[in-house]
Amino acid sequence: DAGVTQSPTHLIKTRGQQVTLRCSPKSGHDTVSWYQQALGQGPQFIFQYYEEEERQRGNFPDRFSGHQFPNYSSELNVNALLLGDSALYLCASSLRSQPQHFGDGTRLSIL
Amino acid sequence: GQQLNQSPQSMFIQEGEDVSMNCTSSSIFNTWLWYKQDPGEGPVLLIALYKAGELTSNGRLTAQFGITRKDSFLNISASIPSDVGIYFCAGQLGAGNNRKLIWGLGTSLAVNP
């Protein structure tokens, strides 16, 4: 039973570029959340998707957008990348009120 | 961003010792969660707490949901080298498919064999 899978594992971009990160939820899960984790910090909530709609959003600018597909997988898009966007991006999936399960993240580096 | 007060920031202990860490918040949460994160990996759930006053164990780990719903602690008994890692508390706001987790800054644990 595959857990949460994220791709790519590492990514290097330059300032101003755009990036798309992908997440496949754990089998049986229907809700996907995205988090940003800067080095030495705890994760920061970006947003949550359920039934292909954004249900909750953290304190992130509109440059951060997402999408959920009918198969429950999800994408995180970040436009106009800044140096400060360098971080580990974590995807978590869940079903109803059960605890969230996390993938191993995508390490994004901005040059 | 919003984060919980987690302490201590780091601990260096001898194998076999007990460990205690805690989280406090000015907000009330309906769920407290404790995760462990190893280098290069995502957080792994250790214990979930759903009711104020609840005390839950998972092997050598014990966690409690504070009565005020604003705090939680995690104890690890008889530590072993594989306990090394970063431990995070997280408080949950909302419920079901409309919720978010607020995280602590983590407690880095090192165990000397």
Explain what this protein looks like in three dimensions:
The complex is a heterodimer of chains A (111) and B (113). By secondary structure, chain A is mainly beta. Chain A is built from no helices and eleven strands. Chain A has strands spanning 5-7, 10-13, 19-24, 31-37, 44-50, 53-57, 64-68, 74-78, 87-94, 101-102, 106-110. The radius of gyration of chain A is 13 Å and the shape is globular. The mean pLDDT of chain A is 95. Chain B is mostly beta strands and 113 residues long. Chain B contains no helices and eleven strands. In chain B, strands 2, 4, 5, 9, 10 and 11 form a six-stranded mixed sheet that branches. At the A-B interface, strand 4, strand 5 and strand 10 of A face strand 4, strand 5, strand 9 and strand 10 of B.
Quick structural gist:
With 111 residues, chain A is mainly β.
Task: Write down the secondary-structure element order of chain B.
Answer: EEEEEEEEEEE
Given the helix and strand composition of chain B, which structural class is it? mainly beta
Find the count of extended strands of chain A (DSSP E, 2+ residues): 11
- What fraction of residues of chain B sit in β-strands? over 45%
Largest sheet of chain A: 7 strands, mixed
Q: Output mean pLDDT of chain B.
A: 94
Average of the residue pLDDT scores of chain A: 95
What kind of assembly state do the chains in view correspond to?
heterodimer
Chart the SSEs and their pairings:
The complex is a heterodimer of chains A (111) and B (113).
Chain A: E1 5-7, E2 10-13, E3 19-24, E4 31-37, E5 44-50, E6 53-57, E7 64-68, E8 74-78, E9 87-94, E10 101-102, E11 106-110
Parallel strand pairs in A: 2-11
Antiparallel strand pairs in A: 1-3, 3-8, 4-5, 4-9, 5-6, 7-8, 9-10, 9-11
Chain B: E1 5-7, E2 10-14, E3 19-24, E4 31-37, E5 44-49, E6 55-58, E7 61-65, E8 71-76, E9 85-95, E10 98-103, E11 107-112
Parallel strand pairs in B: 2-11
Antiparallel strand pairs in B: 1-3, 3-8, 4-5, 4-9, 6-7, 7-8, 9-10, 9-11
